[in-house]
What does this fold into?
Amino acid sequence: MKILFVCTGNTCRSPLSEAIARKIAIERGLHDVEIASAGTSAWDGAPASDGSLLVGMERGMDLSSHRAQTLNRDLVRDFDLILAMGPHHLERIEALGGSGKAFLVADFASHGSSVRPISDPIGAELDVYRATADELEEEIRRVMDRILAERSSGPS
It folds into this structure.
C-alpha cells in the first residue's frame, strides 16, 4: 500500500505526517506500506520548516533529508490512498484524478464523522507546531487502525 500526505508547501504538515506515519507503521509491523508527501504549491527541493525539523527531533524523527515535491498527476496515479490536510488540497488532488482515493486526514481516520482540516503552523511558535504534531499523530494512529481493520476483514 502506498500512502501520500498532501498539504500546501510540503514543508510543515505533510512532512510531519510522513514521518509520524512511518514511525507508526514500523511500530505496528506494517512493513509493506510506502509513505510519502507532497504539496499543492510546493517549492521543489525545499527542506522541512525549522518548526517541523525541531518537533521531529523532539519526537525522535529525523526530517533533515526531507525535500519538498509538487503534487502532480503521476503522484496521484501512483498512490493508493491520498490524505489531505484541508478541503482545497482535496480539490486539487481530485482535479488531478484522485477521486475515490483521496480524503481529508480526519475524514478517513473517523470513517466520515469528522471533516475537520489540520491547521497550518507555518511561521508560528514552536508550541503551535507541537500541537499540530499531536493532532497529526492522533489522526494518523486512527488512519493506521482503519487500514489494519480493513486488512483483517478483507479477503486474504
Observations:
- The chain is about 45% helix and 10% strand.
- The mean pLDDT is 96.
- Helices lie at 13-27, 50-58, 73-78, 87-95, 105-109, 126-153.
